[in-house]
Amino acid sequence: MTSEPLKPAVLHILLALAEGELHGLGIADWVEETTGGAVELGPGTLYRSLKEMAADGLIREARAPARESDPRRKYYAITAAGRRRVTAEAARLARLVEVARSRRLLPERA
Amino acid sequence: MGARSQRVHSAIFRLLLRLYPSAFRAAYGDEMTSYFLSRLARARGRGRLSASREWLRGLLDVARTALAERRSVRRWESGGGSALTSLLQDIGYAARRLGRTPLFALFAVSILALGIGLNAAVFGVVDALLLRPAPFADASSIVHVYQDSDDGEPSSTSFPTYREMAQLNEVFAGVAANTQSGAALETGDGSRQVAVEYATASYLPVLGLRPHLGRWFDAAHDHVGSELVAVVSHRTWRTQFGGDPDMVGRTVRLNNQSVTVIGVGPTEFNGEAGSLLTDFWLSISSTPVGGPYQVANLDREEDHWYLVKARLAPGVGLGAAQAAMDALALRRAELFPELNRGRAITVFAHDAVRFHPAFDGPLRLAGVGLFTVSGLVLLLACANLANLLLVRGLARRPELAVRLALGAGRGRVARLLLVEALLLSVTGAVAGVALGAWSLRFFPALPLPIPGGGLDVGFDHRMVVFGAVLALLTGTLFGALPALRVTRGNVADSLRDEGRGATGGRGVRLLRGGLVAVQVTVSMVLVVAAGLLARGLSNTERVSPGFDADRLAVVATNLGQAGITDALESDVVAAQILERAATLPGVESVALTTRLPVSGGGSTTQVVDGYEPVAGTGAVELDFAAVSAGYFETVGIPLKAGRTFSAEDRAGGPRVVIVNETAARLFWGGDAIGGRLRAQSVPDGWREVIGVVGDARVSSLGEAPTPFIYYAAAQSAPAAFNIVVRSAGDPAALIAPLRAAVREVRPTLPIVRATTLEAHLGDALAGPRLGAALMGSFSLLALLLAGLGIYAVVAHSVEQRRRELGIRCALGAARPRLIATVVGHTLLVVAFGAATGLLLAAFATRGLEGMFYGVGALDPLAFGGAALLLLATGGAAALIPARRAAAADPVDVLRDS
Predict the structure, then answer these.
(1) CA dist B671 to B607, B646, B687, Å?
(2) Using a CB-CB distance cutoff of 8 angstroms, which residues of chain B are in contact with residue A25?
(3) pLDDT given for residue B73 in this prediction
(4) Across the interface, do B32 and A73 touch by the CB < 8 Å criterion?
(5) Which residues lie closer than 8 Å to B73 by C-beta, 6 or more apart?
(6) What whole-number distance in Å separates Cα of residue B233 and Cα of residue B231?
(7) Do B140 and B350 contact (CB within 8 A), yes or no?
(8) Which residue of B88, B257, B325, B891 has the fewest CB atoms within a 10 Å radius of its CB?
(9) At CA B869, angle to CA B863 and CA B871, rounded to 5?
C-alpha cells in the first residue's frame, strides 16, 4: 500500500464516488458544490483521471441506473481498493491537521 | 445558449479534442463535449467574460492533458506514433528542457525579442513608407505625370498645364491634380496647424476610391467662386472629431474662413500613397482659404505646385501617354517659350513611383540602410544563440547518443533540437513584435524628414506576418547549425567520450571560432558606422551657423491664415507687430524674416545679369528670404560689402537685393555690388545688389556653402514671417510676451512657431542626433552580444580544458602564462573578425563619403577606435573565465577528474 499523496483530482473523484455511483458531470458538479467552487475539474482532467483511475483499479465502470435517459453516459463506482486508498489519504490528511493544531496553526476543536 | 451557437462551440471543442489520441477520443470524446458545453452554458449565464474564461480554462486543460495522455500512451524513444503526437512531444520536451534552464531561456528570448522587435519596428516604418501598396482600385492603369523643374528633373506641374492634360480624353480616362499645404484650424482655444490638400473633383475617382460618408467634390467645385467645401480625412475624423456621425454639414474654420465639410474620406486612404497623413482635402473652389496667391497660382504657368495623377483610357499604354505628353510639352513651349523651352513632361507607371521620383531614391536608400543595420543586429543575435545552443548541444551529446543508440532516428533527434530553437524563436518573435508595435507609438514624436502631415504607421497584420517569417528564419538559422553538428558523428565515439565530457572535436571548435569571428565582424561594422555618425555629428555641432544664435527668440505667424490678403494691410500689420515687439521690456532689437537660417523654404528662379549657368534654361534656382531693415544687425550676420536694408528701401522705390558671399563669388567673382538679377518670369523686374553679407547656413548645418539672396520685406509684402528679437537676457522669457504682442495686433493671427534660435538649431540637429543615438545603441547592443558570445565560448573551452590546465599548473606553469595562452587564442579569433569587419566597413562606407560631415570615409579615429573597443571587449570577455580557471587549485581539479 503506497502512502504517496493522491493528486487533488483523484482525491475529489474518490470522495464523490464514496457516496454512490455517479457519471462524469455528476462527479464534477458534486466536487464543485462541496468545495464551494474552489475546485473545478476541467474536462480533460476529469476524464483522463477517470481513465487512469479505472486502469489502476481505484474505480470501475458501473451500470447506469434505470432513470438515466442518456445511454452514452458512463457511470462509475468506487472499488474496495479505491475505498482503502481514499480512507488512507483521509487519515493522512487528518494527521496533518493534528500536526497543524499542535503548532497552533488551526483553532482547537470546539 | 442558442442552438446555432451551441453547434459552433461544440464543433470547435471537438476540433480541439483531436489533440488526444484517437482511442481516448473515441472513449470519452462525446461525454467530454457534453460536459464542457453544459459548463460553458452555465458560465455564459454569468456573462461574456466568464464564458471566455471557461473557454480559456478548457483550452489549457485539454492541451495539458492531451500532452500527458499522448506521453503516457507511447514513449517517444519508440520512434513510432503519429506526426502530431511526436511533434507535441517534441514541443513539450523542448519546453521542459528550456524550463530547466530558465536563465538561458530568458536570455535567449530577450536577445531575440530585442533583435526581432527592432526589425519589426523598422519594418513597420519601411512598410508604411515604401512597401504597403496604395489602396487604389485597379492601380495598374494609374500613371503619375510630372512637368520638369528648371533643373530638368521630373518635379511638379503648373495648374494651367494640368487643365490642358485634363482635355486629353483620348489618352486619359481621368486626370487629377492635388497640392499639399498647411492651414490653421480654429479650435476652442486658439488654432492648430493642420495638413491640407487642394484637390480637383477628379482626384478620388481617378484613384478609384469613394468617401466613407457624404460626398466628394463635383465638377462645380473645380472653379473659384463656388462654395468653400472640405472633405475631412477618415483618420482625422476619427481622432480629432471623435467620429462624429453628423460631421457632414458641419462648418470648420480654416485660415479664418468658414468651410463646409461635405464628406469624410475613404477608410483606407488618408493622404498621399495612403501613408502620408492629410487632415482635410479642399476643393479648387476653396483655394481662397490658402490666400490670394493660392488662387492666383491656378493661372500661373510659372508656378509648379500640383502633382498630377491620371487614369489611362482603355487600350492606351504608357508609350502612347508619353507621346501625348511630349506633344503637350511642345505646345506649352510654343505658348510660353521663355518659361517652357526644353521643359519636358514625363509619365511614370504607378508602381514606379511611391511619393515622388525625387524623394523615392533617398527614401529607398534610407529604408535599405535601416534594414541592413537592424538585420545585422538580428544576425548577431542568431550567431550568438547558435553558439549557445551548440554548447548546450555538446553538453547533451552523451544523452543524444544514448537516444540514437536506442534507435531514435537521427532526423528525429535533429528535429528535437530544431524544435527547441523554434520554440525560442517563436516566443522571441511574439515578444519582439509586441515590442516593435509598442515602440511605433513613439514614432510620430520623432523628427523625421518626411513631407506632409505625418506618416500613417501602426501595428497591422503585415507586421505579424513579418514577425512569423523572422521567427522561422531565425529559429532555423541558429537551430540548424548546432542540430547538424551535434547529431553528426559516430554514436560509439560519443558514448566512449561520455566519461571525459565531450569536447565536440576540432570541427565544432572551428565552427564556434567562426561564429565568434562573425559576431566580431558584424559588431565591427556597426561600431565603425556609429563612430562615423558620432564624429560627423560632433563636427556639425561645432559648425558656426553664420549668425549669433545667442539670446535670440522667434515667433512666427501667418497673415494669410488670418485672412489678411491685401498687401497694404499686410505691411501695416507687420509694422505694428514689429513696433509692439520692440517696446517689450528686455528687447534689444527686433526684425522680420520670411525664412530663418537653417530651415526649409521656397526657392525662386532667377536670371543673373552677366552669368551663364552651365546647363538648363539660362536661369538659376536660388533660395531666398525677405527681411526687414535691421535683420542682419539683429541676428548678427556680418555685412561684407555695400550696405544693409534701410527705411529707404520701400515698395515703389528702386528694387534692391542683398546676396551672401557664396552668391557674390559664384555670380560676380566676388564683386557683387551693382550687379543685377531678376525673377525669370518678370522680364523687367531687375533688382540691384546693394550689399553682400556673410554666409549663414541655409537649410542644414552640414551643408556646403549655398548661394542665398535677401529681398527687402517692404518690397515684397510677405504673408507669413518670423519675428526675431535679440533679448538682453534669457530669450525664452520673451516668447510668451511676443506671442501676446502678435495676438494684440490681431487676435486672429495664428502662432505658427515660438521658440529660441538655440532650440531651433537644436531641432535642425535632431535628425542627425537621432541617427547617431540609434546607431550608437545598436552598436552597443552588438558589442554586448559579441562580448557575451566570446565569454560563453571561452568559458566553455576552459571548462573542457580544466584537466589540461590543472596538470600544467601542477607541473609548475605560471598562472599568468596560462591566462595569456587562453586569452591570446581568443584575441586571435577576435582580431581575425575585427580585420574582416574593418575591410567590410571600409567597403560599405566608401559609398557614403560626404554623409558624415567633415569626416573622411576612412576616418582613422572611428576605425581605430572601433578596433580597440572590440579587442578590449574580446580581451575582457576572455579574461574573466580564463582567470577563474587558472585560479582553481590543481589538486582539486585533478582529483575531480
Answers:
(1) 18, 21, 16
(2) 31, 34-35, 38
(3) 66
(4) no
(5) B21, B23, B24, B85
(6) 6
(7) yes
(8) B891
(9) 105
Q: What are the φ and ψ backbone dihedral angles of B176, each rounded to 5 degrees?
A: -130, 150
Residue among B398, B378, B393 at smallest CA distance from B479: B393
Interchain proximity B31–A73, CB inside 8 Å? yes
| Residues facing residue B195 across a β-bridge | B182
Q: Nearest to residue B548, comparing CAs of B486, B469, B632, B488?
A: B632
* Pairwise CB contact (< 8 Å): B65 & A48: yes
Closest Cα in chain B, distance from residue A70 (Å): 10
Report the gap between the CA of A72 and the closest CA in chain B (Å).
Answer: 7
Instruction: Give pLDDT tens digits for B112-142.
Output: 888 898 899 889 888 888 888 888 989 999 9
Nearest-by-Cβ selection for A51 from B28, B34, B58: B28
Count the alpha carbons within 13 Å of B681 in the hemisphere toward its beta carbon: 11
Query: How many CB atoms sit inside 10 A of residue B338's CB?
Result: 15
Q: How far apart are CA A16 and CA A21, in angstroms?
A: 9
Question: What span, in angstroms and rounded, lies between the C-alpha atoms of B555 and B756?
Answer: 9
For residue B114, give the nearest of B381, B462, B465 by alpha carbon.
B381
Contacts of A47 in chain B (CB under 8 A): 28, 31-32, 35
* B62 with A51: Cβ contact below 8 A: no
Give A16 to chain B, closest Cα distance, Å.
Answer: 17
Closest CB to B24 among A42, A51, A74: A51
What residues of chain B lie within 8 A of the CB of A23, using their CB? 31
Distance CA B165, CA B159 (A): 10
Q: Which residues of B touch A51 (CB under 8 A)?
A: 24, 27-28
Calpha distance B325→B315 (Å, rounded)? 17
The H or E element spanning position B382 is: helix B357-395
- Chain B residues inside the 8 Å CB shell of A72: 30-31
Q: Which residue positions in chain B have pLDDT lower than 70?
A: 1-2, 73-83, 408, 443-454, 486-506, 615-617, 847-852, 893-897
For B31, the closest of A42, A48, A72 (CB atoms) is A72
Cα B646 to Cα B628, B629, B716: the distances in Å are 8, 5, 15
Query: 10 Å Cβ neighbour count for B156?
Result: 20
- The three cell numbers of residue B381 are 543575435
C-alpha cell at B429: 518573435
0.80 exceeded by the pTM?
no
- Distance between CA atoms of B712 and B656, rounded to whole angstroms? 7
| Amino acid, single-letter form, for residue B418 | L
CA atoms within 13 A on the CB side of B819: 17
**Minimum-distance CB partner of A42 among B20, B28, B58:** B58
- pLDDT for A77 equals 92
Name the nearest CA neighbour of B604 among B594, B614, B612.
B594
pLDDT at position B80 is 47
